[in-house]
Structures are given as structure tokens and as C-alpha cells.
Amino acid sequence: MNIRLDGKRALVTGGNSGIGASIVNELADAGAQVAINYLDHPEVAEQMAQSIQQKGGQAITIQADIANMVSVEAMFKRIDEAWGGIDILINNAGIDGDYMTSWQADIVKWKQVIEINLFGTFYCANQALKRMISQKMGVILSTSSVHETIAWTGHSAYTSSKAAISMLTKTLAQEVAPHNVRVLAIAPGAVKTTINQNVWDNPTGLKDLLEKIPMARIGEPSEIAQVAVFLVSDVASYITGRTIFVDGGMTDYPEFAHGG
Fold it and tell me: Which are the catalytic amino acids?
């Protein structure tokens, strides 16, 4: 099946690295116009945009802090100026934060994770929906995690934010369904990016990680991105209000394969 997104206007937050960068490239390859949001490393975003343009696609770069509502509003105004609106929002930007047990947590750092992962996701959804509702069309896809269901010691802010994204997705989807707008989330498991390189590049860490994955391998960013393109396309037009797990079976609790 050849999925096409020709003429669709897309924004990918955190689009200049990791899974976000892979989603940007997959969207562009499918024909979408892509706005690459970044917080830092503008040179990477610009290089990605130039590469897309050289292949005949359309791409722009926008610096914005998604945890700042004023910055988010300015980002969407920039997209309005460039393309006259938005059809696809990929809420991808996020952080996992430092390891902190709850009683030792640095409250400022704990709050920062929530502000980026949850507030940032809502700020962008708020702006996108203002436009999608009026045009009676659009899709929002937020990056969640297997940790919306799996606890992770030392990362209570991260797990809480991802669990919140799950319910935010369901609630927004319920609100906007009558307007022909869909809202979804995608939950990656262990994916080979630079963020977690210290784990998969270490033999001991890799062995421990693979024991948590029934498919016994780490996912590639492209495997998440390809599912993302499917979900925002018309091929998935009857799917909304759900988190789609792309995790090699991690949420299938492989420890129980050998008995309870």
C-alpha cells in the first residue's frame, strides 16, 4: 500500500532529532509539507529542510519552546503565514528528565518534565485544533511511551506525563470527533536513538534491555515513523482516541512467558 499525504501541511515538534527526525523524513517522502520545530541545533533542522527541498519537497524550520504558550502561538502563526493552516500535528518533543526518586526529587526539574511533555503537548494541540475545527479536518498524533502503562522507578514525572497524554488523547478525540478531526497517540518501546545510546551501546545494558522485549531487538526510528505516517493518513480514517503501541511486545510483560 502506497500511502500518500500530498498537499497536507504538517508540523513535527522536536523534529530535528531521533524519532522526530525520522517522522519528518517519512512525512516528506509521502508528499507532505513539513514544518520542523526545534529548540536548539538550528543547523540540523536547516540541513534536514534543505535535503527535503533538494528532493522536490517543501519544508520550513521553526524555533519554538513548546513549554511556552507565547512561543507556541508564534510558531503556529508562522505556519499560517507559510501555508495558510495545518492538517497534521505530530506532538513529538519531550524529555525523560533526570533520575529522581520521589522523596529526593528536584521539584524544579520534576516540573520541567511535566511542562514540556504535557503542557507543551496541550499548548500545541490547542492551537492546532483552533484551525482544524474550522476547516473540519485534521489529525493530531502525540508521542507517548510504553511508560504510560509501565512504571519506571526514578522517572515519576515522565511516567505521569505520558499517562496523562493517554487520557488527554482520549478526551480531545471525543471532543473533536463530530468535527471530522482525529486525535491519537503512538507509544514507542525501546528505540535506537542517541538519547538512549548509553544503554544499547553497553553490552550489559543491552542484555538487560533485550530481556524486556519479546522480539529480542531494539526498534528503529523508521519503524515508529512508518506507523505514524499510516496513523495520520486517510488509510487510518476510522481510528481515533487510542494509543498505538509500537514496542516489540514490551507491554506484553515477557517475564511471564515462563510462568506466573
Answer: 158
